[in-house]
Fold:
Amino acid sequence: MSDHLRPAQSGTARGETRRSFDSSRGAARERFVGPAVQVTGVWKSFDNGRVPVLEGADVTVAPGEMVALWGPSGSGKSTLLHLVGGLDRPDRGEVRVLGGNVDGEADRVRLRRHHLGFVFQLHNLIPDLTVAENCAVPALAVGRPPAETAARIEELTAAVGIAHRRAHRVQDLSGGERQRVAICRALMNRPEVLLADEPTGSLDEETATKVFALFRDLVRREGAALLLATHERRFAEACDRILRVSHGRVLPL
Amino acid sequence: MTFSALVRVNLRRHWVRTGIGVAGIAFGCAAMLTILSIVLGAIGMFERILDTDSQVLVFERDVSDLFFSSVPAASAAEIRRLPGVAAANPVLFGIVSAPGHPIVTCFGVENDNPRLSGATWLAGDRATFGPADGAVLGERAAAFLKVGLGDELPLGHTTFRVAGIVRTANGFEDGGVFLPLASAQTFFHREDLSSIIAVKLADGSAAAAFKDEIARRYPKLIALENREFAQGYSQFRILKLTGWAVGICAFLLGGLGVANTMLMSVFTRIREIAVLRVCGFSKLQVARIIVVEALAMAVAGCAVGLALGFAVLFGIQQVPQLNGYVQAVVSPLVLAGIVATSIVTALIGALYPAAYATRIEPAEALRYE
Structure:
């Protein structure tokens, strides 16, 4: 059984996941019990320890829960998201996603393929690809059949209101539209956990409000847990819970 | 979207850079095809000179070049008398100069040499070959020396009279001059010598016994079947090796082009590769993209290069000044070798860029957005 499917040994926060999932897409579907994300006593610094960022951070996110990491720029929000997403390794402490740790390369790849979705401040789309092609990148990583991919793209782009832009190249889109494409891409493989790093940070206030509303509704509809890094209080307050990130610590607000 | 679409987009995005990589491979392919085909063609022509109506060549042992081989003419008469020998034809090779043409190949042959009896006589006839001052010219030699039947032909310090013009199937012979053996021996100061003796056996399967007999009777001579000679003759081997070496050097430059193109491509896509990793691509999948892009460039370069090579070969053969010496032979083995070399070159060129791409740390690449 995959490490990500193992029942959590301790510390369940909200009980059972709201839906079952399979980590290998093809293995028997099993129910996972436990927190979607559990960060325990994590320390992280850069530049050989000269720049401490996280000092014993603890975070727990239940399945389907929306949690905001709120704090000023440079407080360690993005670093925490990177650690949860297996993009970086903690100096100390433990990070578990869906009950499994993210230490090994194979674990991290499996996690990012099947269980995690990322949305960045700058959309980080691939230029010269169309909206549909950008959305399809995660499906390509897992080798999903084209028909299934196309149906999912149709569903997601319609949900965020850019279905009519599917065949357009992303450089022809506005900032708000690009961020919607990034949201579709993040949700492509129906992840259980979504990590969003200032997803509206590059947008004007009005567009940011619209995009965030769409984003939150879609995440809620998909039933994914959300860990949102933001410095904007209004977006943090739209989540189920706010955690303040300050001086390397993560504290409830 | 398919994997190939991702590769196609990456290649198309920086088409100038891709084009430079493709051009590197194309020039390598074209150079290799041109050089090897000309070399193999030249070797083939020389082989055909040697194996005209014969199975075994007798020449001086350990000689580096057949032009320096000395076989006593008396040996030919003795060899003719050996059991199982149907014919033994001495040939003396030499290089002469003619006005405006410093290098003209000369063949000293006897009257009944099958080279002349098998040729098409365009002017004169077999009966006119024989007088000491008579020279028979290949068709192309007559054309580039601008002489006809009965004309005087200055070769070196001697003037010959054109006694005939023949057409042969061989570029070297067609561009050469046939002199009576005795005249050639005098002209080249190699009295009573020939370069080779081309031996026709009554029974081709008796070659081994014949070679043993030659080794026993003439310790300074060696007899080789034509096939053995072609494989073992050092000049042929040097030519082939040189052809491959020059071709591979051309490919090395092409490989550096591919490596540079792919490395630049990876450098400018660091964030994009990080995003692919974030979206679930494994290191192997990222490496696969780079390698497939390089392979696509190799395939395109190979196609362009082969087309270019064939065009160059065609063009070379149309140049009258080359006197028909270039008869390119495009062997399937050479084509397969070129395709294989271009693919290997691209793979080697993609190795470092692919390894670099797999080492990109997504967090590091995305940290400074």
About this structure: The longest strand of chain B covers residues 85-98. Chain B has a mean pLDDT of 85.
